[in-house]
Amino acid sequence: MRKIALLLLFYVSYTAVFSQTAKYSNDFLSIGVGAKWMGMGNIGSASCNDVGAAYWNPSGLIGMQSRYQIEALHASYFAGMASYNHIALGYKPDSTSAMAFSVIRFGVDDIPNTIDLIDENGNINYDRLKTFSIADYAFLFSYAKATYIPHLWVGGNAKLIYRNVGKFASAWGFGLDASARYQLNKWLFGATVKDITTTFNLWSFNSKALEITVGDSTYNSASKNNLEITLPRLILGISRTFKINENLNLTAETDFDFTFDGKRNTLISGKPASIDPHFGLEVGYKNIIFIRAGANNIQRNSGFGGGNELTLQPSLGVGIKFRSINIDYAMTNAGNQGYSRYSNIFSIRWSFDSFKPR
Question: DSSP readout, 6-57?
Fold first, then answer.
């Protein structure tokens, strides 16, 4: 009876929190990492086997071919107004375990703060003009382990979120991801549950910095709702590599994103889940040169003729591997989705076995 009462109390509390708080937070964590995988339509749940797996599927970290890997990414959005950066360090102490630490930042810098532009006498004083930044940070602590079942790896993330709006507001959040990867013959299967515990962001507001006083009136009062939540999301992937000849390999993957927060404008929209499929291909020549393509964000939109038309967001990419260094480039948002026609994404990955010089 006590257990039933506790479950009812948890359910009532859970429902009350969710009905009074803002949803859809931490969207910057849906952008992706690694120009290789972003050039393939934001896939990677099944086949990612480098340090970027900490984002796509932490279980894949065991696939790293060296003891250490470092990866860095940079991209600009909205004609350079926003920047997106990622850096990660992976460590594989043995053949059955691996770990990684990753940092993601998405921000807009040098925003003019016009609140203090007018002095106490009502005059415009440009010497009072200052700038501030709006930035979102994510710190990922990842771990993966091979199980006693052959070819089955499991893993997870602990995520610390920090969001900052200049001196006006800031938020801290925490969440967990869980994942698994399994190989059956030449097929790879991946499953990742992002925010499996639900990620909560708690905001704090600087009321004095937000307020603007004009005469006897005060504007820009702080928000009373200071809690955001990110609901769980399930990502399933399937991948296979085909050997065309001695020099050419073809890797194909399809991922399916399942969301459970009501109908979304996805290819398969419904209740209790909406499904967003995305696809990617990579052709590799002698494991040195790679050409990639993909498609995601497939939607049905109303056209000028009144009917629904199918739109998608294509992506293209190339990569070069020179010894232990991989340099990748991707061009995403190449269609008519979003406000910018395309974004150029660059990443570099270095694999090595020791920090000590040989």
Answer: HHHHHHHHHHHHHHHSB----GGGGS-S-HHHHTTTS--TTT--STTHHHH-
- Helix (H) / strand (E) element for 272: namely none
Q: What would the two tokens of residue 25 be? A: 């937070």
Per-residue pLDDT at 13: 37
CA 174 to chain centre: 15
Cα–Cα distance for residue pair 296/257, rounded to 1 Å:
10
Contact by Cβ (8 Å): 235, 256? yes
Q: What letter does residue 118 receive in the DSSP assignment?
A: B
Task: Say if residues 45 and 235 touch (Cβ distance below 8 Å).
Answer: yes
Contacts with 313 (C-beta within 8 Å, 6 or more apart), sequence order = 295, 296, 297, 298, 332, 333, 334, 335, 337
239, burial (CB in 10 Å: exposed 0-12, middle 13-18, buried 19+):
buried
Q: Which residues of the chain have pLDDT under 70?
A: 1-24, 118-122, 209-225, 302-307, 334-342, 355-358
What residues does 156 pair with on adjacent strands?
A: 143, 178
In a domain? residue 197: yes
Angle at 323 between CA 322 and CA 324, to 5 degrees: 105
Contact 254, 237 (CB under 8 A): yes
Which residue reads 């190989």 in tokens? Answer: 183
Q: For residue 83, is it within any domain?
A: yes
Cite the DSSP H helix spans in the chain.
2-20, 35-38, 53-56, 207-210
Residue 358 belongs to a domain: no
Could you give the number of structural domains in the chain? Answer: 1
CATH number for position 80: 2.40.160.40
Q: For residue 95, give Cα distances in angstroms to 63, 66, 82, 91, 141.
A: 9, 10, 39, 11, 19
